[in-house]
């Protein structure tokens, strides 16, 4: 547990002013000399091949510079390597079309407008084949997901226990396709200089982007420089490289001129990833006093034809409650779709919805309070592996959340809490998310003015990572926040891993803390060796940095500038790498090569590490017209050390707001015959607006955990969304007596 | 970017002249919030835009007199929505505008442009879909068996089930408003607002009975003992900034508990701004209660035709109308002056 004074103190974002004044340079704002503009041509069919293009009209557009298709550049790049799931669909490598909106051409012109006009004039002669849209579509191929990236759990005999159980729940659930729709689009700018390439692109993993791009373009990673100083929202969508980057690099090489791409909102639905639709079959068996005796969870997930991408949230649901008999299974359904990918709490958001709905159904069947049912089945040991949780404060979250929410005033009978024309319902659900952590490196430089510069190729995707780094460094070096400058998002800096899986704060603060410890140690060693100073002869380990001073155990002190003068003639620079427990020894090297390396909360030898939360929601359903509104929600979370409560609050709150959208509004609609997205814009893809978001209360339950990692950080970016789907569905049941098992919940389900 | 000419008309006769000179595919540009959108996505392809913004000088007034409410075509949505006389005497009009779009859009958009906004059918709004009889006559209808949750159940045809998405127009239709039109020849005519829009039939691309180049100058909502007891109820997936899944414009003249006259409009469920004479007839001369409201709602949706995803809409529409009627009956109002 950190002892510093800045950890846990609310701090406003150090980059906030730059963002609100427009000085923050997002990748497409980076200035390049005389750029040409690219516009994507995407397929209007989901499956088939391109017989040919008619480019005559497009070429006639004034200002046109180049048109890239598989005919002229197909052999120049390999497909990108997704972060997960193996292979993905092609783009310009061949004449094949494997999903709606696939990139099939790139038009480059003197202006954005000319490129767009020419792109609209590209005529494509398609050979159309019947496409499969989703589950149940003719031609969709189902297979069992084998153990690999994800695995299944079998404990005891769940089938027999279910058959023998006195109380059972047996139900099927579904979640829809969803798209991240970050405000910042999927931009790419490429510039070549002397055979070296610079890429400006919003990314959650600049080294990963560099590594994949190098392979795709058959280059040395060292010849590629990726810059992503600010990211305008990502939520997983900017985690893995997409196909566009290599083609924009090739376009720039062909023209010998920088090329800038700003795709459209609707193209964002098909050129990047999304959360695929899922289906679930849950079977719970219990004793009449509420003890679980059997848990079965089978999931189905849609993916593209070549990809094995799946999220397998059964890795979380199998270990939430004590249960002697567990069986999980996951199936993939391949359809003619783009490859899905990470989206906020990728496994847990879709898979906890059925589990936490089923628990609510079980509580109703047992005539038991839903919180009591969780308490009866709470555990400090993971039932799937028998390992202990490093810490688990789920019931404290329930107790604090319930008190704030006023849960004891709930009338358990559905449909009884009415307010005039509105049916009122209260629901709750468990949130859980693994505490993951990745390796990272950082360089800290202390200058003679007593200021620090921290360099780390970490990513601020809007979460407040710049501020976390500054807090850590200031805390460790005994400086003010304003005395720390942070540089991030650039492959010229020491490497950090993927900003995903709620792992980034933990990963980068340990690296920064380690580099700062290096600074302290160097200052301390010089101080104790120097005969004329106040610390002469002391144990260097006993010296600390605080409030601008190097301090000894008996109150000796010396200004940090002075201490620096003893240790270095100019600046003092320390580079440090942090390899967290649970990653292989070569993990740091892997990050530098752009591969993913992460210690997962359910993958460690010694313990299972998870953040937990309890979420409470009030819904109002109009008695006649049945629209659903959420006047208030309370979330209580225990996620270990909170580095910055201000930005942590925003993360939790943002997760909960997104949960309202996920449960009630969001769904990408797919034409069932043509396997094409229909509502690919944010006028028709609904997300909550201000008036849908009323009272959102966040409680941070204090939790100390020195086993999860030395600083006790579990990560908070995702857990806030996880319980919302079920909490809302459970509240809707409580309001109306209707159990809706398909998201989003809409008025037609309740009429 | 498709090239197009842009001209600004100083007054209505200049507007007519400019449009006539430019031929069939010239279009008036008012707030531009619908037209420019459709141009950007490649659905509207006018060769020329005639900006009628300056017509605000003559056609942007709001007045209420014994004859009724007069609204110029260039009045902005926000202006009418917030006007005290409209709020007092024609709450259904004010509410239909307040509950539409967003404040930013309401500050830009005009009443003339509002009534002519086009359907939100996604297949119509994306030319990469081949089949759309409204966009390209004779190509078929992709929505009929496709994604059609938002589309219409009243006034549909075998060729098109696109919904009319607006709100204000349903209130106009309900209240028996008239619209004043200026023809390219310079003559004005007044028609019942209900007759401005056409049913899709087998020509869904012809949405209105406007003559080529005809300009909307304004609207007249006749006064009546029902206008103060009126409201607009809009049911939607989210609380704001969303089109109606179903809406009801109702206005009732009630004397001693008996409905003397009822005016009913429906939105989100029909192919054009919809007045339900059938529901009005059920209410006429009766005392409103749950059963009567139900009977009126049944009458309003008797001819509904659904297509898959929108199967819930008649029921939602009925409930919306019932809720609106029962709410209107309990309104506390000052009797009409
Ligand atoms: C995201 C979004 C949400 C929205 N939500 C709603 C909603 O909930 N409810 C709702 O009702 N509306 C909604 N709207 C639509 C909005 O109200 C309309 O776009 C707006 O009212 C159009 O007015 P305008 O002045 O901008 O018209 P323009 O875009 O300028 O014109 C529209 C059409 O009318 C023609 N026209 C305009 N004025 C005249 C005239 N005087 N004579 C003849 N022809 C004319 C134009 O040539 C054009 O064809 C929404 C729009 C958006 C973009
Ligand atoms: S419903 Fe009408 S607008 Fe929609 S696709 Fe069919 S024809 Fe086109």
Notes on the structure:
The complex is a heterodimer of chains A (751) and B (337). Chain A has three domains: 183 residues, Aldehyde Oxidoreductase, domain 3 (Alpha-Beta Complex); 333 residues, Aldehyde Oxidoreductase, domain 4, CATH 3.30.365; 149 residues, Aldehyde Oxidoreductase, domain 4 (2-Layer Sandwich), CATH 3.30.365. Chain A is 26% helix and 24% strand. Chain A has 20 helices and 30 strands. Chain A has a seven-stranded mixed beta sheet. In chain A, strands 7, 8, 9, 14, 15 and 16 form a six-stranded mixed beta sheet that branches. A five-stranded mixed beta sheet of chain A has the order 17-18-26-27-30, with helices on both faces. The mean pLDDT of chain A is 97. In chain B, the strands form three sheets. Chain B has a five-stranded antiparallel beta sheet with strand order 4-5-8-6-7. Chain B folds into two domains: 52 residues, Uridine Diphospho-n-acetylenolpyruvylglucosamine Reductase, domain 2 (2-Layer Sandwich); 224 residues, CO dehydrogenase flavoprotein, C-terminal domain (Enolase-like, domain 1), CATH 3.30.390. Chain B is globular. The interface between A and B is medium-sized, with 37 and 32 residues. The site of flavin-adenine dinucleotide (FAD) has 30 residues of chain B, from strand 2, helix 2, helix 7, helix 8 and strand 8.
CATH superfamily membership of the largest domain in chain A? Aldehyde oxidase/xanthine dehydrogenase, molybdopterin binding domain
From the spread of the alpha carbons, the general shape of chain A counts as: globular
Q: What is the number of helical segments of chain A per DSSP (H or I, 4+ residues)? A: 20
CATH class of the largest domain in chain A: Alpha Beta
Distance between the termini of chain B: 54 Å
Number of strands of chain B: 12
Q: If strands are numbered along the chain, what order do they take across the biggest sheet of chain B?
A: 4-5-8-6-7
Structural class of chain B: alpha+beta
